[in-house]
């Protein structure tokens, strides 16, 4: 029997799944109107989906993670490659700001692959969609902006040996950099791609182990030690955690604004994303807010944003203990 | 040289500790993507492949002139996608890479003769393969993954296709007569030894797919094919087990 938000002209009764397909908006509204409000998947308004993180499954990568957030599955692989300082066309200034060094040299390269058949909207064989490109950009901005990796951790230094006693102490110079390529591939998508992608990036970076690299002056090349004991974890300086919220609203240009009801749904899945016109993503680390991203919509106000930020801090506590 | 180490000549153990006729660990999951008509994730050792099936769906081409007498059967289109992290070097393959096109064509023709395509006239069945990790036996793994995905999609076929690779140690054996046939070749062995990929239904002696790209002595070939067919039978047994287990779980209502 269908729950009817408005009296139907004919007495038809649909099974649940048909109702969900025919009128997804009223279907979600019928669930949210209950007291307490509940979502079709059975979650509460502020409940995240169950997540599963598996690391180290890819053999050829320096770090990898497979993350499942409900039915959204994402694989992230981190591969390090050497960039010789001599190959950089316009080397940065000695006094260049550390913050910009990473970005100028492009040492962190994320790429999101959505056209894998992960959902009917993302069929394989197509060039990257707007969503894929904007997700790649968001991940990139967060990687550089959160200063999770310092350029010093990626530098390969070399100190020339002292030849004469009278010479000054040799200055260590940067001979090469590690460039980290982060390939994020969606295996299945059921809403909230950004949170899943970022969780995979964090898990992969935390378990990335790079070999010990040194500059060989005779060969003029970087040599890596193959010994497993010499592989070292990356030093991560922050632990950004993201949370995405969608807003479902019954606001209608034909109705009074005061009559509209709205609910903020945490970690939306595809069926909820399709009927929500407004979304908000908050990124926090510890006690700092690293970013808030909201594009469009007119329902969320000050209190709702603050509430979402509080929820994200709570999420941070939960996730930072789960991350490997 | 994978077999130069003393472990092989003395103890007959390969680099990864297997004997000549041992398969690597095969594991799979069906219906990994709810959005696709059929999907499967297949692992053969460290070679990992995801296959999704879309179809049968309406063909894009509208054969107005040639629809009546000409071939009306469905077509099988295959697309192979190498993930950047699949090989030791991070390399994005160009779209029109010939090697990839050849792989896709081999898989497509293998299934064109196996699937009952006359049941779906004027439609297209699209197979998309995502290679997550390459560690030898790529074509065989792709064929096995595609079989499972097609079974998950419910597309009828004459018999499931199982594939395996075999190599011969003839060039490196002390005594030519003692050359061994190795089953299920991994990366390092593929580079050094002549190997072939063979696929069949696992019943009888029929060979559905045979790809040999290296030089082998005539006398070795029969032995390799014989061991290959035995390997195909065992892989077919493994695939059957995987499908049955998935079926049991579906019946118990644990899978959607």
From TrEMBL, chain A:
Main localization (coarse): cytoplasm
Family: Belongs to the RNase PH family.
Source organism: Cryoendolithus antarcticus
Subcellular location: Cytoplasm; Nucleus, Nucleolus
Any one annotated GO CC term: nuclear exosome (RNase complex)
The protein's name: Ribosomal RNA-processing protein 43
Record-linked InterPro entries: ExoRNase_PH_dom1, ExoRNase_PH_dom2, ExoRNase_PH_dom2_sf, Exosome_comp_Rrp42_subfam, PNPase/RNase_PH_dom_sf, Ribosomal_Su5_D2-typ_SF
Keyword terms, alphabetized: Cytoplasm, Exosome, Nucleus, RNA-binding, rRNA processing
Domain of life per record: Eukaryota
Entry GO MF terms: mRNA 3'-UTR AU-rich region binding
GO BP: any one term: U4 snRNA 3'-end processing
Residues covered by the Exoribonuclease phosphorolytic domain: 47-211, 264-313
UniProtKB/TrEMBL annotation, chain B:
GO biological process, one term: rRNA catabolic process
Alphabetized UniProt keyword annotations: Cytoplasm, Exosome
One Pfam family linked to the record: RNase_PH_C
Exoribonuclease phosphorolytic domain span: 22-156, 165-230
GO cellular component, one term: nucleolus
Subunit structure: Component of the RNA exosome complex. Specifically part of the catalytically inactive RNA exosome core complex (Exo-9) which may associate with the catalytic subunits RRP6 and DIS3 in cytoplasmic- and nuclear-specific RNA exosome complex forms. Exo-9 is formed by a hexameric base ring of RNase PH domain-containing subunits and a cap ring consisting of CSL4, RRP4 and RRP40.
Family: Belongs to the RNase PH family.
Name of the protein: Ribosomal RNA-processing protein 41
Native organism taxonomy: Eukaryota, Fungi, Dikarya, Ascomycota, Pezizomycotina
């Amino acid at each position: 029997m269908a729950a009817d938000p408005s009296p139907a002209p004919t007495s038809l009764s649909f099974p649940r799944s048909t109702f969900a397909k025919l009128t997804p908006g009223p279907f979600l509204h019928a669930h949210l109107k209950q007291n307490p409000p509940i979502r079709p998947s059975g979650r509460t308004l502020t409940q995240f989906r169950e997540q599963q993180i598996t690391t180290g499954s890819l053999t050829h990568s320096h770090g990898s993670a497979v993350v499942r957030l409900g039915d959204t599955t994402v694989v992230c692989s981190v591969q390090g490659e050497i960039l010789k300082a001599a190959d950089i066309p316009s080397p940065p200034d000695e006094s260049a700001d550390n913050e910009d060094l990473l970005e100028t040299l492009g040492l962190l390269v994320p790429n999101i692959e959505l056209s894998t058949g992960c959902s009917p909207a993302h069929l394989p064989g197509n060039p990257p969609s707007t969503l894929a490109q904007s997700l790649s950009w968001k991940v990139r901005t967060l990687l550089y902006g959160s200063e999770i990796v310092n350029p010093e951790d990626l530098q390969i230094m070399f100190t020339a040996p002292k030849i004469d006693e009278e010479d000054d102490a040799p200055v260590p110079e940067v001979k090469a950099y590690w460039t980290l390529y982060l390939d994020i591939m969606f295996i299945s998508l059921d809403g909230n791609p950004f949170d899943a992608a970022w969780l995979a990036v964090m898990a992969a970076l935390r378990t990335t182990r790079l070999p010990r690299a040194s500059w060989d002056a005779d060969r003029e090349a970087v040599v890596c030690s193959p010994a497993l004991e010499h592989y070292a974890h990356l030093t991560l300086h922050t632990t950004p955690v993201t949370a995405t919220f969608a807003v479902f609203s019954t606001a209608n240009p034909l109705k009074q604004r005061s009559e509209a009801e709205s609910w903020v749904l945490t970690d939306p899945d595809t069926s909820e994303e399709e009927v929500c016109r407004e979304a908000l993503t908050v990124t926090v680390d510890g006690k700092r807010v690293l970013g808030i991203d909201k594009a469009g919509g007119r329902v969320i106000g000050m209190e709702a944003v603050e509430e979402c930020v509080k929820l994200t801090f709570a999420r941070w506590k939960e996730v930072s203990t789960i991350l490997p | 040289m994978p077999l130069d180490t003393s472990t092989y000549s003395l103890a007959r153990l390969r680099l990864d500790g297997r004997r000549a006729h041992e398969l690597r660990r095969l594991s799979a999951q069906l219906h990994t993507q709810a959005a696709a008509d059929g999907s499967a994730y297949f692992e053969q050792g460290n070679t990992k492949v995801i296959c999704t099936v879309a179809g049968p769906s309406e063909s894009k081409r509208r054969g107005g002139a040639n629809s009546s007498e000409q071939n009306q059967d469905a077509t099988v289109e295959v697309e192979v996608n190498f993930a950047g992290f699949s090989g030791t070097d991070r390399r994005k393959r160009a779209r029109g890479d010939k090697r990839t096109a050849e792989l896709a064509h081999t898989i497509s023709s293998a299934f064109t003769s196996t699937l009952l395509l006359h049941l779906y006239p004027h439609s297209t069945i699209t197979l998309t393969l995502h290679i997550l990790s390459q560690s030898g036996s790529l074509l065989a793994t792709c064929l096995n993954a595609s079989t499972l995905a097609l079974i998950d999609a419910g597309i009828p076929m004459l018999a499931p296709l199982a594939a395996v690779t075999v190599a011969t140690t003839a060039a490196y054996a002390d005594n030519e007569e003692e050359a061994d046939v190795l089953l299920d070749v991994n990366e390092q062995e593929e580079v050094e030894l002549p190997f072939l990929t063979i696929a069949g239904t696992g019943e009888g002696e029929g060979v559905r797919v045979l790809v040999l790209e290296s030089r082998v002595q005539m006398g070795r070939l029969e032995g390799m094919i014989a061991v290959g067919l035995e390997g195909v039978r065992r892989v077919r047994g493994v695939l059957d087990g995987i499908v049955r287990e998935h079926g049991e779980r579906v019946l118990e209502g644990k899978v959607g």
